[in-house]
Amino acid sequence: MIPAKFDYVRPSSVDEAVAALRDAGEDAKILAGGQSLLPVLRLRLAAPSVIIDLGGIADLRRIAEDGDRIAIGAMAPHHDVMRDDLVKQHVSLLSQATATVADPQVRHRGTLGGALAHADPAGDLGAVALALDAEFVIAGASGTRTVPASEFFVDYFTTAIGEGEILTQVRFPKYTGWATHYEKFNRTAQAWSMCAVAVALRIDGGSIAEARVGLTNMGTTPIRASGVEAALVGQQANEDSARAAAEHATEGTAAPSDADAASDYREHLARVLTGRAVLAAAG
Amino acid sequence: MTTTAEPTTELGKARTRKEDARLITGRTRYTDAITPHGTLHMFVVRSPIAHATITSVDKSAAEAAPGVLGVFTAADLGVEAVGLPCAWPITPDMKSPQRPLLATGTVHFAGEGVAVVVARTPAEARDAADLVEIDYDPLEPVLDMEAALADGATLVHPDLGTNENATWVFDSGAAGTGGSVDEAIAAAEADPDSIVLKRRFRQQRLIPAFMEPRSCVVDPTGEQITVWAATQVPHILRTMTTVTLGVPEAKLRVIAPDVGGGFGGKIGVLPEEMLCVALAQRLNKPVKWTETRSESLLAAHHGRDQIQDITITAKKDGTVTGLDVHLLADMGAYLGLVGPGVPILGAFMFNAIYKFPALKFTCTNVFTTKTLTDAYRGAGRPEATFAIERIMDELAVELGRDPMDLRKQNWIAHEEFPFTTVVGLTYDTGNYEQATEQAMATFDYAGLRREQEERRARGDKVQLGIGISTFTEMCGLAPSRVLGSLAYGAGGWEAASIRMLATGKVEVVTGSSAHGQGHETAFSQIVADQLGVPFEDVEILHGDTQISPKGLDTYGSRSLAVGGIAIVKAADKVIAKAKKLAAHLLEASEDDIEFNAGQFTVRGTDKGKAIQELAFAAFMAHDYPEDMEPSLDAEAVYDPENFSFPHGTHLAAMEVDTETGKVALRRYVCVDDIGNVVNPLIAEGQVHGGLAQGIAQALFEEANYDDQGTLVNGTFVDYTLPSAADLPSFESSTVSTPSTSNPLGVKGVGEAGTIASTPAIVNGVIDALRHLGVTEVEMPTTSQRVWRAIQEAQGRSTQETPVDTHSPGAGLGSIDPNNPQGEVQ
Question: Which end of chain A is least crowded, N or C, by CB within 10 Å?
Answer without folding.
Answer: C
